[in-house]
Amino acid sequence: MRQLLALPRIAAVAAALVIGATALTVTSGVAAADPAQTLREQTRDRLAATIAPGMVAELGRTFGFTADQVLDRLTTEKLAMTAQPGVALALDKTYGGLWIGDGTSTVYVAVTTPAAFGKVEALGYTPTLVTYAQKTLTGYQRLLDDSSAPAGVTGWHVDITSNKVVVLARQRATGDARAWAVKLGVPANALRVEVAGETPRPFADIVGGTAYYINTSSRCSVGFSVVHPSRGDGFVSAGHCGSTGASVTSGTGSPGTFVLSSFPGNDYSYIDAGAGWTASPRVQGNSQEVADANVAPVGSSICRSGSTTGYHCGSVQQLNTSVTYPQGTVSGVTRTNVCAEPGDSGGSFISGASAQGMTSGGSGNCSSGGTTYFQPVGEALSASGATLKTSGSGPGPGPGTCGTHPNNYSGSLSGTGQQAYQPNNSYYQSTVSGTHSACLQGPSGTDFDLYLQKWNGSAWTDVATSDSSSSQETISYSGTAGYYRYRVYSYSGGGAYALGLTKP
């Protein structure tokens, strides 16, 4: 269930780690613009133009911020989203995690040695010393994932802010929970057992209202609109809402169908919408349009939309959490302090304009507050072969040879000379040698080119190129293990494109 998202320029991050924060000067003696400050200002301007006023207002109410402070906070979060994978890659074995502070501009990065403090400070982040690297704690978490939990244990996760593996258990089961984790190999000083006040359950009870209905009885909420290369418009939601083949109705549209559903283990589903349904990048409640799927770091502000309780905001508490429902354990979900109630299941979690995931379950309610988990959207997209409907995607690409790949993405280039990186403005890791293949389909009448790049330890280098004069390109490359990404480039023209790729 793990995915890597949000890395537009790892090379830039790595360069920043080497160069540091010293000011550059031109020969005339006039100080050049600070690139980091320029990037922050440009990012803030884009957010001010794209973030819906309703989201700004709700975040202001939730966190006690002014509108300007909300935009400052969202700017910090957006920059941290895109930098997070590159920071982890650059710090490697010393990396202990990244999270957002309580204010509007502080980002913390944990490292296991003081020698790495300078690298963190060069990025403008605040270093903090920890005992365990994030990879080590994640390894301990996997030990728990691969074992049956004792009765009364409701979930577990890595808390990067305290550098611990946290196990949640009912009061009567805390001793058993600790003994279970230690026996499996989690060191005592890396473990914290917390009392779970309530038992999480999926938010999929049979209730009245709108949204979408499963087999004309139970109700859930749409997550995000997607476009499939062969099926067309549809949406992703929670897996526990319905099984594969179940019928879906909503409004005046013709019945749709659950094409894919995974629960427990995961909690995602892909629904093929019927005639009369139209994919939209909007999120209900604030008219916010989805722009991408960058992963929000711990501490980021986040908002949820659901058909029972509407629109609510809060913070990301932990990524990659395991939670035990009565039906079984779901791993890789994200823990938040946003409230939700039955019927909100499957609904959208969004941070700024970045899609995060679909409401899974939790405890509490929107009167007293509670904890809610969401299934990250990336795995649902990868498993279904669909792509997010975003504000820049325009009409979804139709059927084509790119649809034969198991991993499919979409985007849009505004014109000649523009470029984008996939998957999802990020990269992927191949742990074995093998063939990397991809197909790019751009708009007719354009000339889009495709490049496969590999990280050589300090920069991205082109290892395969397809640059014909047409709008369709294909790549097949036999490579060794490592980090890879695709660069989509417009030699001429602009518009929406589809990219399908296959990894070793």
Automatic annotation (TrEMBL):
SUPFAM superfamilies: Trypsin-like serine proteases
Molecular function, one GO term: serine-type endopeptidase activity
Pfam entry (one): Pro_Al_protease
Alphabetized InterPro entries for the sequence: Pept_S1_alpha_lytic, Pept_S1A_streptogrisin, Peptidase_S1_PA, Peptidase_S1_PA_chymotrypsin, Streptogrisin_prodomain
Peptidase S1A alpha-lytic prodomain domain boundaries: 136-187
Signal peptide: 1-32
Gene Ontology BP term (one): proteolysis
Key words, A-Z: Disulfide bond, Hydrolase, Protease, Serine protease, Signal, Zymogen
Protein name in UniProt: Serine protease
GO cellular component: extracellular region
Region of interest called Disordered, as start-end residue ranges on this chain: 385-407
Organism classification: Bacteria, Bacillati, Actinomycetota, Actinomycetes, Micromonosporales
Similarity comment text for this entry: Belongs to the peptidase S1 family.
